[in-house]
Amino acid sequence: MHVFYTPDIASDLYTLNEEESRHCSKVLRLIKGDIIHLIDGKGGFYKAEITEVGKKNVQLQVLETQLEYGKRNHHLHIAIAPTKNIDRLEWFLEKATEIGIDEITPIICDRSERKIVKEDRLEKVITSAVKQSLTAYHPKLNPTITYQNFIKQNLQGNKMIAHCMEGDKVPISKNAATQQSYTILIGPEGDFSPEELHIALQNGYKPVTLGNTRLRTETAALAACFEVNYINR
Amino acid sequence: MHVFYTPDIASDLYTLNEEESRHCSKVLRLIKGDIIHLIDGKGGFYKAEITEVGKKNVQLQVLETQLEYGKRNHHLHIAIAPTKNIDRLEWFLEKATEIGIDEITPIICDRSERKIVKEDRLEKVITSAVKQSLTAYHPKLNPTITYQNFIKQNLQGNKMIAHCMEGDKVPISKNAATQQSYTILIGPEGDFSPEELHIALQNGYKPVTLGNTRLRTETAALAACFEVNYINR
User: Fold this and answer.
1) B154: domain CATH number?
2) Are the Cβ atoms of A171 and B213 closer than 8 angstroms?
3) B85 CB within 8 Å of a chain A CB
4) Digits of tens for pLDDT over chain A (233 positions)?
5) Alpha helix stretches (DSSP H) within chain A
6) Contact status of A100 with chain B (Cβ, < 8 Å)
7) Please, which of A54, A75, A174, A202 could form a disulfide with A181 given CB 3.0 to 4.6 Å?
8) In B89-119, which positions are buried (b, 16+ CB within 10 angstroms) versus exposed (e)?
């Protein structure tokens, strides 16, 4: 099945942009009459027929439309410190998109060695995972902000922080009901600082454990993602 | 904390092999009197003091020994078709080791594009994840075998197959009790063949679902690993 990402689709007639058109005609060598599928990233899943093949503009006629395709019953937002090796963050984005996530925010923490991320590149990773896993909802990647500014946003719903320091922690499943909104903080290599933990607790974030083993940043984030999706199955 | 992998440790006196000795003295620049930790891969976790530093042989005196460190309450064996891009299999091995797995067998399936894996390289990936995540039990990597030969082994315990074909499937958690032995089959890109599924069912493997989204081979394997560890927490 050939899937294209068409966030700006607005009617039954659609023209692929230059890049997608070239991919469609030159790489996939699709021709007039071939059937492809479209995902708009907002829950729309479309079956379309190629009506005209130009090098730079492939025209389509939408045949079938499914809205709210694979609609999720909860909202998961993970705020994660970018990993030193950016491949690990990209890997997390790909896997989280496959398993199910709604929103991601890179947060710069006291102990973050990486303070800059190329959001456009991360966006591409998410989009290709969306196409590959047939996820009609495109996870939202927020701009990178500091930990302090993230906490200040005073978000609603279940707020949790996964840290490695001593103290009482409960599993996510014991901490949060199902079909709700969840925000989970994942720290950098070297963990959050005690001050960061203190601020989180003050702002209503509950400390959670992700199991007994020592997990890397990206593994911890994916473990949280898995657990939230699991309890909402 | 500096952790060394010492599978052959047998007494309170131990000498690191040439490679580890060089790493200890040249890279980490540790000296006589420094404290390091050892993992033997069989559940032994040791605290040791450096008593002698040679370029090729660093000698240690074990100060504390913990046996059955982080002993697991179940046995998880995942048989997975090697991915076309071997990085994806290596990534799975690292993550599964962090989260918890006991045995891995690469299986060559009808639709496997990759039919050869370098086990020594995969072994290195597992060992470095063992050290990084302080897992005192080293997961066992079995030699690569064909799907047919794997099924013929007639293993005991909970046997499951994760496939994408039509048919009744239940989640792992609904399929298996806790604290048991689990064997889970994960297919290649393009899934198992209908014949392979048929043979599995004939041999007592139950079909399981890992959720509603379309997962890559390595993501499916990790999702299974997450779920088994989760229900055994």
Assistant:
1) 3.40.1280.10
2) no
3) no
4) 899 999 999 999 999 999 999 999 999 999 999 999 999 999 999 999 999 998 899 999 999 999 999 899 999 999 999 999 999 999 999 999 999 999 999 999 999 999 999 999 999 999 999 998 888 899 999 999 999 999 999 899 999 999 999 999 999 999 889 999 999 999 999 999 999 999 999 999 999 999 888 899 999 999 999 999 999 98
5) 18-22, 86-99, 119-132, 147-152, 172-175, 194-202, 217-231
6) yes
7) A75
8) bbbbbbbbbbbbbbbbbbbbbbebebeebee
Quick check: A14 and A38 in contact, CB under 8 A? yes
Whether residues A23 and A95 share a domain: the answer is: no
ipTM summary value: 0.90
Q: With an 8 Å Cβ cutoff, are A233 and B216 in contact?
A: no
Domain stops at, among B66, B91, B106: B66
Q: Would you tell me which residues 152-191 of chain A have a C-beta closer than 8 angstroms to some C-beta of chain B?
A: 171
- Residues spanned by the domain of B128: 75-231
Please return the burial class of A184, using the count of CB atoms within 10 Å of its CB with bins 0-12, 13-18 and 19+. Answer: buried
- Cβ of B135 within 8 Å of Cβ of A222? The answer is no
Interface mutation vs chain A, best among B227, B230, B231, most A CBs within 10 Å: B230
Chain B environment of A132 (Cβ under 8 Å): 214, 216
